[in-house]
Amino acid sequence: MAAISPFFLLFLIPIVPLSILAILALIVRPRPIKIPIKSRHVFITGGSSGIGLALAHRAAAEGARVSILARSAGKLEEAKKEIQLATGVEVATFSADVRDYDAVSKAIDESGPIDVLIVNQGVFTAKELVTHSPEDVKFTIDVNLVGSFNVIKAALPAMKARKDRGPASISLVSSQAGQVGVYGYAAYSASKFGLQGLAQALQQEVIADDIHVTLIFPPDTNTPGFEEEQKSRPDVTAIIAASSGSMETEEVARKAMDGIKAGKFTVSCNFEGFLLSLATTGMSPQRSFWLAFLEVITAGPIRLIALFFQWDWYKAIEKWSKTKTK
């Protein structure tokens, strides 16, 4: 039996990855898209502070007509003045609680047809579940998850009915705690994990209407809400969170807006987030066959990295538990 030439084996090495790339180029859906921002209506919930305010600044600076919604009329007025001073653009403001579907629907109807909807509102309290009151858990899930349903449901009919307005976008601001459960974030992680299922199902429902869904995963971000949460978070939560660091709102907003304009389904904001996205991609849509290829070939190594992080976190929990019982 003739020996196989080493040169033939070398020739075969690139065949497998090239074949995978060719298959992915055929099957990856939805196809790449660009979402314009200039001269379009961008509607942002939770737009009076934090990431939402930074997104409103960026959208206004790029020439969009901007509407922001939040609960506090006073904070909305402050945000409006701040954006006008920085960009010269006067934004529309709407005071409503996202838990109230009728109030949200009224605000959206008054704002006019939306081209880019950014569902950004969120509340969080870091506590062990045993110390969380049922009212706190319900409040977190109602604002973060049910509120997102309310906003999207209210905006969707007009977005689907638009004519000749170009591709539209619906973005949901989740969290890295919506990709991996974190000590002290049982209620918060549950509310943010829910956005993954909402986004995946919604994309299938609206793709025929040229509406494109984006799911954004910020890390800890230096917002007023984050500053308050740090004062009461459990020690173990602080130890785990320190492993990925934090970001400024402006940088998160820049990465989020770039992802929205590129029509990405998943937007990571830092390197750790990118690794998390590779590890947790599951059935998420992927527009780029290059990124799909990376997801396929790194599945094993990324799982190993994820297990290492889990080991590190559980070691921290064990160490803290021992000091607590002394």
Q: What features would you describe in this structure?
A:
- It contains 13 helices and 9 strands.
- The radius of gyration is 22 Å and the shape is globular.
- The protein has one domain (32-278): Rossmann fold, CATH 3.40.50.720.
- The chain has helices at residues 6-12, 15-27, 50-61, 73-87, 101-111, 134-161, 186-206, 224-232, 235-241, 249-261, 271-280, 289-297, 299-325, and strands spanning 41-45, 65-70, 92-95, 116-119, 168-173, 211-217, 220-221, 246-247, 266-268.
- The protein is α/β, with parallel strands linked by helices and 326 residues long.
- 40% of the residues are buried.
- Strands 3-2-1-4-5-6-9 form a 7-stranded parallel sheet, with helices on both faces.
- Keywords: Endoplasmic reticulum, Lipid metabolism, Membrane, NADP, Nucleotide-binding, Oxidoreductase, Sphingolipid metabolism, Transmembrane, Transmembrane helix.
- This is 3-dehydrosphinganine reductase.
- GO terms for molecular function: 3-dehydrosphinganine reductase activity; nucleotide binding.
- It is found in: Endoplasmic reticulum.
- Belongs to the short-chain dehydrogenases/reductases (SDR) family.
